[in-house]
Amino acid sequence: MGVVGCTKSVVINDESQKESSTVGTGSDQAEEKVAEPAECMAIIEWVDFLMNNDIKYYQNYEATEALETKQLGGKVGEVAYKLDGNACTGHVSINGDAAYLPVGTPIYELKGYKPEFRVVADNKIYEVNHNPNAETIGELMDIEGRVLKIALESGYDGSHIGDFEEVVSAEFVRELLPLKYVGFEKVYEKTKHESGVFLRVYLQDGTSFRMVYYPQANAFTAGAFGTEKLKELIMEQRKRIKGAAGL
Predict the structure, then answer these.
(1) Residues 104, 158: one domain?
(2) Is residue 4, in this structure, part of any structural domain at all?
(3) Rounded Cα–Cα distance for residues 193 and 191 (Å)
(4) Superkingdom, according to UniProt (predicted)?
(5) What is residue 64's predicted lDDT score, i.e. its pLDDT?
(6) 44 shares its domain with 93
(7) What is the rounded distance in angstroms from the CA atom of residue 109 to the CA atom of residue 127?
(8) Bridge partners of residue 119, in order along the sequence
(9) What's phi and psi for 137, nearest 5 deg?
(10) pTM of structure
């Protein structure tokens, strides 16, 4: 999806924005921003995201438990520009941008995780959506040794259907992490006409996140193409779980 112009009743999210290759934190780039239109007539619904050190993060809505101060690590950035109410549809995101966070909101490490995977801002967990420096899924997602289980979810309403067998969950992670990270756009080219298999990765800290797998393309929306072994694991578990659920 390309960047569209500022017209009435345009609904857009951050996935339509082009990536920035600018390096650094938001605070030292404020002067480099292109001035926004004086008045934007578009109705925009932004994804709740922030961008820091060239990494784009989306809020993890599944992390519902309140964070404690002791869980925060060092400061890694600060919001320099809030898109909501200020930016129009042609805006190109750069470091320091955030959809809804106020200017000056500090961005912290989340203890226990690399900041390339998760950070905290406004007491909310933000999780990596795209990291141009990641070469593998293991570098994109700091989850090695942290996965509790893998589960299958409904593609209709996101409800839980069943869990992978414990040994298969572990094997899934071992196969997943070495995959080459190619980014969402390359995967989308192969999957845009295909229905996905909804998976959920549960971590030992009680948080989780969704991964969508496309069997025909053998690809994940996280930005990687799978191995034949990984495809076999997923499809066998899907068949077993759906059969047990009478689906």
Answers:
(1) no
(2) no
(3) 6
(4) Bacteria
(5) 64
(6) yes
(7) 11
(8) 109, 126
(9) -65, -30
(10) 0.83
* 111 and 176 both lie in a single domain: no
Least confident of 85-94, 100-109, 233-242: 85-94
Shared domain check, 165 and 60: no
> What tokens appear for 96 in the block?
């320091």
Residue 2 lies in a domain: no
Percent with pLDDT over 90 in the chain: 76
Task: Note whether 170 and 240 are same-domain residues.
Answer: yes
Number of domains observed in the structure of the chain: 2
Question: 164: which 2 tokens?
Answer: 């992978």
**Contacts from 15-19 at CB under 8 Å and sequence distance 24+?**
15/47, 15/184, 16/89, 17/91, 17/92, 17/93, 18/92, 18/93, 19/56, 19/93, 19/130, 19/132
The predicted pLDDT at position 168 comes to 98
Tokens of 208: 């989780």
**pLDDT at residue 62 tops 70:** yes
Together in a domain, 220 and 240: yes
- Range with the poorest average pLDDT among 9-23, 36-50, 112-126: 9-23
Last residue in a domain, options 133, 159, 178:
133
User: Cβ(59)–Cβ(87) under 8 Å?
Assistant: no
Q: How far apart are CA 132 and CA 184, in angstroms?
A: 11
| pLDDT tens sequence across 98-144 | 999 999 999 999 999 999 999 999 999 999 999 999 999 999 999 99
Last residue of some domain: 70, 98, 133? 133
**Domain assignment of residue 185, given as a range:** 139-244
Please give the average per-residue pLDDT across 55-68, as a whole number.
Answer: 87
Selection from 232, 225, 234, 238 nearest residue 190 by Cα: 225
Q: Which residues pair with 110 in a beta bridge?
A: 72
In a domain, 8, yes or no: no
